[in-house]
Design a protein that fits this description.
CATH superfamily of the largest domain: Protein of unknown function (DUF541), domain 2
Oligomer: single chain
Number of helices: 6
CATH architecture of the largest domain: 2-Layer Sandwich
Largest sheet: 4 strands, antiparallel
Strand content: 35-45%
Structural class: alpha+beta
Radius of gyration: 44 Å
Number of domains: 3
CATH class of the largest domain: Alpha Beta
Order of helices and strands: HEEHEEHEEHEEHEHEE
Strand order of the largest sheet: 7-8-6-9
CATH topology of the largest domain: Alpha-Beta Plaits
Number of strands: 11
Amino acid sequence: MSFAKMGRKLTLAGGSALALALLVFGATACTSDSDSLTTPGGPTSTGSESAQAQESTTTTVGGPVTTLNAPEVQGSLLHTVTVSGNGHMIALPDQAVINIGVQESAPTATEAFDANSKKMQDILARLKAEGIPDSAVETTNVSVYGHPLYDPKSGEVTGTNFQASNSVKVTLSDFSAIGSVFAAATESGANNLSGPIWQLSDNTQAQTQALAKATEQAHAKAEAFAAANGVALGEVLVLNEGYSSPVYYYEGYGATATTTAAPASIAAPPISPQNLDISVNVTITYQLRR
C-alpha cells in the first residue's frame, strides 16, 4: 500500500471520530438546557431542588438572606402571650422589733467604751427584770471611733474625742410590753431608740396566698387576650415570680394592743400594731393555639 492511500484512510477515520464527538456534545447540551434557565444574574435551578432553595433563601440586592419558613419554628417563637399579675394579702403582724442603742463620748477610747458598756449592761438587766428573755435580745452593733476637735478661731486640731456605740435588737411577740420596754430602756440610759418594726415570724402562708391571687390575675388577662384574638390559651411555658415584700400601713387601723404602765417614772408610749400588705408579682408566658 502506498503512503498516499494510507493518509487518505487516516483522514476519513479522524473526521468520522470528530463528527461523533460533536454529536454527543450537542445531545448533552440540549439535556442541560432543559433543566436550567439562564438569567442576567446567572443560572437558576428549577424542579424540586429549586423549590427547596426558594423556601430557605431569598435573593436581594445586597445578597442572599436566609428566612425561616418552617411552621414549627415560627410557632414556637410567635404563638405565645406574656402577661403579669399582682397579688396582695393583708396579714396581722405577730412580732415587733425595737432597736435600742447607747452612745457615749469621752477624751479616750477606753473611757468611752467603758462608760458605754456599763450603760448597756444596765439596760439589759432592766429588760430582763421586765420579763424580756435573753433569746429575744440580739446585739447588732458595737463600735468605737474618734473624731478630731478643732479650735473655733484658728481651725487647728486641738485634740480627739472618742465615741462608743452599742445597739441591740429586741424582738417581742407580746405587743403589750412594747411601751414598757421603751420606757425602761430610756430610764436605764438608752439614748438612741427606734421602732417598732412590725413583721411576721413566718410569712410563707401569706406569700403563698398572694402568689395564688397574682397567678389568677395573670391567667384572667391571658384568657381575655386569647378570646379577643380568636385563639385558645395553651399550657404555661414560662413562670417567673417577681419582687415580694410587706408594705406597711400607718393609719393605725386593725389590731390594737393595750400598753401596760411601765414601773419606771417615764410614761410608756402608746403602741398600736399596723397591718401588713404582702405583695407578690408574677410574669407568665402561655402558649396560644388556633
